[in-house]
Amino acid sequence: MRTIDQNDELPPLVVDRRRHGRTKVLFRGLAVGRYGTQTWDCLIKDISKTGAKLLLPEGQCIPEHFTFTSRRDKIARKASVQWVRAPYFGIQF
Predict the structure, then answer these.
(1) Residue 70 in domain
(2) Count of domains in the chain?
(3) Which of 4, 17, 24, 60 is 20 to 30 A from 48, alpha carbon to alpha carbon?
(4) Which among 40, 36, 72 is positioned nearest to 55, based on CA atoms?
(5) Is residue 6 predicted with pLDDT exceeding 90?
(6) In the chain, where do the E strands start and end?
């Protein structure tokens, strides 16, 4: 049995696979469905150059592919859902 010396490095408990780190924010966002016929208000909990974590009202969900706009920077980006842990949605731009 091997004991851990105080100088030994322990592996991280969770490995972050994101290419770009996310910044914690609390901005309003808007998800727009195909052809602009449906919209969903959301809160942006954290954001990076390539994605974001969104919080939607309970019971709501967004389509797999949509257009995403942060109301702060007013830039529209094509986005897709990468993971769901309702009411949170991880998206990639």
Answers:
(1) yes
(2) 1
(3) 60
(4) 40
(5) no
(6) 23-32, 39-47, 51-55, 65-70, 76-85, 88-92
